Amino acid sequence: MTIAVLGAGAFGTALAVALARHGARVMLWARDADQVARMQADRMNARRLPGVSFPKPLEVTADLAATEAADIVLLAVPMQQTAGLLAAEARRLDGRALVACAKGIDLVSGRGPTAIIAETCPSALPAVLTGPSFAADIARGLPTALTLACADDARGAVLQAALATPVLRLYRSTDCTGAELGGALKNVIAIAAGVVIGAGLGDSARAALMTRGFAEMNRLALALGAQAETLAGLSGFGDLVLTCTSTQSRNFRFGHALGAGEAFDAATTVEGAATAKAVSVLAEKHRLDLPVAAMVAALVDNRISVPDAVSALLSRPLKKE
Fold this sequence. Notes:
- This protein is α/β, with parallel strands linked by helices.
- It contains 15 helices and eight strands.
- It has helices spanning about 10-20, 35-40, 80-90, 90-95, 115-120, 135-140, 155-165, 175-200, 205-225, 230, 235-245, 250-260, 270-285, 290-300, 305-315; strands spanning about 1-5, 25-30, 60, 70-75, 95-100, 125-130, 145-150, 170-175.
- It has an eight-stranded mixed beta sheet, with helices on both faces.
- Helix 5 links the parallel strand 5 (about 95-100) and strand 6.
- Helix 8 (about 175-200) packs parallel to helix 11, helix 8 crosses helix 13 (about 270-285) and helix 8 crosses helix 14.
């Protein structure tokens, strides 16, 4: 079986390395020909995953046509680029298993990746791979557990068998909505958790923030048709814990920089920043009260200061939990 990974960021590269290391023929695609040439010469992605060598079964290409033989395609481009890639390459990608690996909500449509796949490539099998994971851990072969969601459970089981390795354990679900929303929404809360720590508010405040943030994740996900048990699993609660408590999380580091009043690398993709804006639109549409997400969106847009955001959250009326 041949697997194509579209997107040579840290996560896409890590998945390609992990799968190739365990015998799969893997093709890693990047649109930047210069980056591809460097990876081919170095046999590693020195920019995104320095020190991680490519296994022999891993091929790197800038030619998307070279991936047409792949039975399974992992979409590992950033969420805000996913719709554009699918629209541009629909004829090439349709009819295959398309597994979304980005975490977020499309700003233009307000939808998750599987809905975009279903509309753009109607003959494809949409699925989502998500959960608590850092690219460096996967690339190093450290034990990791993820959720693989596919509405067609029988075909999802085939994907599960093809993509699991002895150290990359996949748990199957049919709740694509819940899986992709858990992965998207936890990034917003991770930014808020980073703000809390960056502003020096302490671990107790972070724990409170995570708890209230998880309640918001459930509120929105259930309104959009997700199942509560999905949010309580790896793709929701599990991913929330990881990204709110580790400096390996870009979203947490971004929030920490906001809270501390420090600059952040503008070239680094922070999916939670765009997701916070999309969540604000969805909250208004569904008349939901999501104060943490709203404050994150305001902070990202520089519409409020960190002290004012903290004050606004702490001055909300007391209520039952």
